[in-house]
Write a structure and sequence with these properties.
With 138 residues, the protein is mostly helical. It is 77% helix and 0% strand. The model has no long low-confidence stretch (mean pLDDT 89).
Length: 138
């Protein structure tokens, strides 16, 4: 396994890429579902409009989930990244001074579980959108 200092730096790189792309994709998908829902809302496809509205709600909830649920873990990992900048490439954190649950590997395991839940939101929205598009008849 990679040293903890390298792990948190790699997390920061991956997190930065996701933070740049995910909100834009989420907003585009959410507004697409809102558009579809709105255009079907006053037709005979009311139920289909409701499914698209639910898809919009679920897909768009990735932003508040990230800002509320993942705020603490992201902040803690960002602090670990800042701490790692003061260490050399081969130096490690002094884990004897680190509280249980605050070690980089533990933090990354928690982040991974929360991120998995976060990823299920747009996936569920996509499944709802596919269902409404291909499997619901007018």
């Amino acid at each position: 396994m990679a040293p903890n200092t390298l792990l948190v730096r790699q997390w920061k790189t991956a997190y930065g890429r996701g933070a740049a792309a995910a909100p834009v994709l989420s907003i585009v998908c959410t507004f697409s579902y809102i558009y579809l829902s709105y255009n079907l809302a006053f037709t005979l496809n009311q139920h289909k409009a409701e499914v698209y509205a639910l898809a919009a709600l679920v897909t768009g909830s990735i932003v508040p989930y990230t800002l509320i649920v993942m705020k603490n873990i992201n902040g803690t990992l960002n602090r670990k990244v800042q701490e790692s900048k003061h260490l050399g490439r081969t130096e490690e954190y002094d884990e004897s001074k680190t509280a249980v649950g605050e070690r980089p590997q533990e933090l990354l395991q928690r982040w991974r579980a929360l991120n998995y839940g976060r990823g299920l939101l747009p996936f569920t929205g996509a499944c709802l959108g596919i269902y409404a598009t291909f499997y619901m008849t007018s």
